[in-house]
Amino acid sequence: MGRNDREHRRLALQGSILNPFTEQLLRRAGMAGGMRVLDIGCGVGEVTLMAARLVGYQGRVTAIDVDEMALSTAQGRARELGVSNISFVHCAVDDHQSGHEYDAVIGRHILIHTPNPLSILQSAARALRPGGVAVFQEFDFSVVHPAYPASPLREQLLGVFREFFCRATQGAVGSKLFHLFLEAGFSMPDCRVEYPMDGGPDSPFYEWMAESYRSILPHVEALGLAQDSNVDTLAERLREEAVANQAGFPGPVMVGGFARKT
User: Are 56 and 33 within 8 A, CB to CB?
Assistant: First the structure.
C-alpha cells in the first residue's frame, strides 16, 4: 500500500483508531513487564511503542520491517517519547537472526500482505521459546458489516475493498487465522472478531477510508475495480453521507488471535 510519507500518515491515523483493540489483545495474550518481544512488520511503530510500554524498562522489543523510511519514522517517534527499550532492524521476517528466543512474536495487518501467511507463523514459532506466544491481528474483507441507515457511498467503497483485498492479497486471512495457528504447530488458539464503529461530523473514519482507498487506487484501477476516481473529495462526501443519515459506519472486520508454542 505504498512506502511514502502519505502512507505513513495513513498508518498513524489507522493506529489511532485501532490501537485500543490491539492493546486489549496484547493484554489478553499475557504481555507483561520484562518480556522480550519481536514485532514483525512494525511500520511506523504503532504496535512497537505499545508493546514497549507494556513490557517496561526491564523488557525489550525488537522491531523489524523492510521499509527503511517507516523504520526511520518509528525510530524518530521512539526518540521523541524517550523510549529506549526498542531495537529497530531493517530486514525481512525470514532474514531475521536474533541469536536468542523471544517470549512473544506480534504482528498487525501483516499476514494479509504476504503470499504465504503460514510461513510467517512458522517463522514466528521458530523465534519463540517453548511456551512463548504469537499474537496477530488481521483484517478480513470477506465479511462486511453494512452501515445503518443505508449509506450507498460507504457500501460502494467497502465493496471495492472486499473485491480488491480478496483478489489481490490474503483478504480473508482473518477467518483463516485459527486454522493457520494450528497448521503452524501452535496450541489451541484464542481468537475474537471485532471492529470499531463510528460516525458524526468529527469521526476520523472518513479520512481513514479515503486515504486507504487512495493507497490502493492504482492497483484497483489495474484490476478494473475502480468506481470512484475523485479521491480528493471522498472523505468529505463520506462525512456528509454519515451526518445526513445519522449513520454509524462499521470499520473493517478484524480477527485478533494468540496461541502458544508447545
Answer: yes
What's the whole-number mean pLDDT along residues 205-227?
91
If one counts the domains in the chain, the total is 1
Average pLDDT, the chain: 94
- Integer Cα distance of 20 and 262 in angstroms: 29
Cell output for 241: 453521507
* Top-confidence residue, 149 or 99: 149
User: Is it the case that residue 207 has pLDDT exceeding 90?
Assistant: yes
Torsion, Cα 111 114 119 124, to 10 degrees, reads -50
Give the integer Cα–Cα distance in Å for 98 and 186: 21
9 band by pLDDT with thresholds 50, 70 and 90: confident
Q: 164 by DSSP, 3-state: which?
A: helix
Query: Which domain CATH number covers 177?
Result: 3.40.50.150
Q: Which domain holds residue 184?
A: 5-260
Phi and psi at residue 75, to the nearest 5°: -60, -40
Q: Coil, strand or helix: which one is 39?
A: strand
Distance CA 24, CA 26 (A): 6
Residue with cell 510500554: 53
DSSP letter (8 states) at residue 223: T
What percent of the chain has a predicted confidence (pLDDT) above 90?
A: 83
CA 61 → CA 31, 32, 57, 257, distances in Å? 12, 12, 10, 20
